[in-house]
Amino acid sequence: MDAIHEKLKVIAPATGEQIGEIEETPISKVGLFYHKGRTAFLSWSNLPIEERLRYLRRLKDIMVTQMEDTASIIATDTGKVVTEALIADIMPTLDSIDHICKHANKILKRKKVTTPILLVGKKSFIEYMPRGVVLVISPWNYPLQLAMVPMISALATGNTVILKPSEVTPLVGKCIEDLFQKAGFPEGVVQFAHGGKEVGAAFTNGKPDYIFFTGSVRTGKIIQEIAAKELIPTTLELGGKDPMIVFKDAHLERAAKGAAWAAFTNSGQVCMSAERLYVEKNVYPQFISLLKKEILSLRQGTDANADVGSMTFPAQIQIVKEQLEDAIQNGAVLETGIPPEEWKNDMFLPLTLVTNVNHQMKVIQEESFGPLLPVIPFETEEEAVNLANDTVYGLNASVWSSDRQKARRVASKLISGGVVINDAIITVANHGLPFGGAKQSGIGRYHGDTGLKIFCHEKSIIEDTGRKKSEIHWYPYKEKYPLFLTLFKSYFNERRNWLQFAKSYLSILKKS
Ligand code: NAD
């Protein structure tokens, strides 16, 4: 059934109040969206890159002017505290525009590369050609940044974009639409499809030229299956179960403060949050006590001075609850927080630290995406690495130690898209670094040079002056085989025989 009159209710999670309604995009319009996107692509992709970047700069100026309004919309729609809306959603988006405006020209420029001597007389180049209409599907936890950064990257490279923002945070989706509208992008270059998973599925089936998806592993697999049928290229940015490893020689107070932040920022609803903590045995009791103190000092709320906001998505609470119940039933001990049966019926979950957990528990193996941090002691470096690598995920990780060699050694051994030493999460904040996951945390990378190149066909071009009558590798082959043997043996030998190479080359040329 067409959803033409369907409305998405906007509920402020922290208060439970309905604060608006947003019209869903009717599924019958999918074809029209792609038609508009493809038409706009013809002119947008042909604009000089500097022209396209001018639109992005205008977008940035508007975002800077409206920074407080946008932060307030994000905070209301997600329940996160306004400081986090600013530092973790708005700032990275602005920084990505800056980075792209500064580097895109160079990254996307036609590049000359060396040509091997066997192809003598030719020149080789790489060109970057936009793909067409890019479908971006985004989640609710950082609803601005995770929608806008891929959009901006795709637009800078000359693609047109359809965004399907999360239905859980529709107000932010609408806010992004307003920002782009104010920036005055030409008709059809950026379009917005509001709605839930049915709308997402309809647009995925609409044959985009590229899909950039950020969300759960479950949805990522569904999208990849549909994309495979049409051989549509994708980037999948999926879930995580990120380990934090604390060695006894770390600055323990800093590490405890860092752990509290990395585990509970955005109420733990972060794909890169510290979801498992491994602490070296000798300092384990001391570290737990420092961390407890830190956690107990945090204040949950909605005002500007609060540290931790509410959960965003009600269904996530059940997942966290079940994991904790499972852990407690199997002997886990609550160091902070209260048993799940005593939880209040609201969106603020207790900040929970659990010990006495084992590696088979759900709380260790499955993504929690909530304010729940299990801790496990370890004895050796090797054990820490093995434990950290022992889940299906590999998005991010952190290693805490004052021994730089050891920290780097461990970082290199972790199967992870990113690792931070003596801090956490922040690889995502340097737009010059590639971002993405290993194992089930995703396929592909964005940010940095890669983040622009993925939205392009990387085209190889070889150029010949066209003045010679023939080429050595063309017909006729008559009497060429032994000469080619001599040519390649003289060329690929450890010690190149240039004289023999030149002789056989000229002989083949004569026969061509
Ligand atoms: P989700 O997979 O439920 O939804 C993400 C988006 O996909 C939403 O817009 C949703 O409407 C859409 N969608 C759902 N089903 C669909 C379908 N069948 N076809 C097309 N679209 C569909 O994820 P979520 O709950 O919004 O986000 C939380 C998850 O995202 C967590 O697992 C988290 O780890 C992950 N995440 C990953 C990153 C990353 O960069 N790797 C960043 C943030 C969040």
Biggest sheet descriptor: 7 strands, mixed
Hetero compounds:
nicotinamide-adenine-dinucleotide
CATH homologous superfamily designation of the largest domain: Aldehyde Dehydrogenase, Chain A, domain 1
Q: Name the average pLDDT.
A: 97
> What topology, given as strand order, has the largest sheet?
12-13-14-11-10-15-16
Decide which structural class fits the backbone: alpha/beta
Overall CATH class of the largest domain: Alpha Beta
CATH fold field value of the largest domain: Aldehyde Dehydrogenase, Chain A, domain 1
* Share of residues in strands: 15-25%
The outline comes out as globular
Task: Provide a quick synopsis of the model.
The protein is an alpha/beta fold and 512 residues long. The protein has 17 helices and 18 strands. α5 (145-156) links the parallel β5 and β6 (160-164).
